[in-house]
Amino acid sequence: MKKLSYLLLGLTLMAALFLTACSSSSTSKSENETHSKHDETATDYPKRQIELVVPFAAGGGVDLAARAVAEYLSKEWGQPIVVNNKPGGGGMIGAQYALKEAKADGYTVLVNNNSSTTMFEAGNSQTTLTIKDNVFASRVAEATTAFAVKADAEWDNLKELSDWAKENPDKLTWASVGPAGFSSFAVAEWLDTIGVDFQDTKMVSSEGASDSTAKVAGGHVILAVHNAGEVAPLAQGGKIKVLAVSSEERHPLFPDVPTAKEQGFEDLTVKWWTGLSFAKDTPPEIVQKWDEAVAKMEKDPEFIKQLEKIKLEPSYLNSADFTKNVQEEKDRYLKLAEETGIRK
Q: How many domains does the chain have?
């Protein structure tokens, strides 16, 4: 009887050791497969077409920057990169698609700017998207803010328009992609400095800079505030005129236009930027690969020439610095939004 008991105990121990070994082998295999999958993702990406989602209409700064990025990286990676414009909702329709609806596999990239990130969140107390829904890869470019009116408007500089706005706030109309878009914050900051209640003026909806400037040129809206490159085509064509730029020095596109500071406006700080971000579950190796590619791209003379053609300034920030910068900007704009009544 004792021999039988010892035999059974021995068989039990052997079975336990076998199962443990199998489990360990299975776990090791699973871990190796996981590591292999991640290594493959980082090494082989991209294998197919990439979609750059622009949440604004074609022809604006974000769109033009996206097309420059697509052209450069499609050659760099040997895969097609297409630009998909999804305007509307102050940038939220395209952002929602890129960050929430498309697969988080690195093949859908959001090309955004202040309007679809920091400004949207600062201006809305209830949002479907926040900056936390973005994994910020790289900032690509910045641009100087410009104030423009119709070519035959009665004002020749921002000082004259400001004096008129003080007397006629209810007649001031301006275009923006949404109540919390880039133009809204730039206008609100300007009005705050001259003592005009932002709520007394009127916003007219637009799909982006090209639409806004066309509305001004057609006499449907008094003021358009966008980056200097976005207003340049119609300004150079004699359809609109620039009253001021917010750069430290006169802008090379408009050397005869005084800066805002030259005209006595010391506190106009709103500045346009565009950059790349991904949905939260995107493999970090892919985000890093984009960041490294953009860093290389922004040192390439040919890419810099492309930015110069579309009137943008290279302004690379890596993923960590870009993320920090966006958070700080959101906090600053939240204060402005609360003080001027933008935030709803």
A: 2
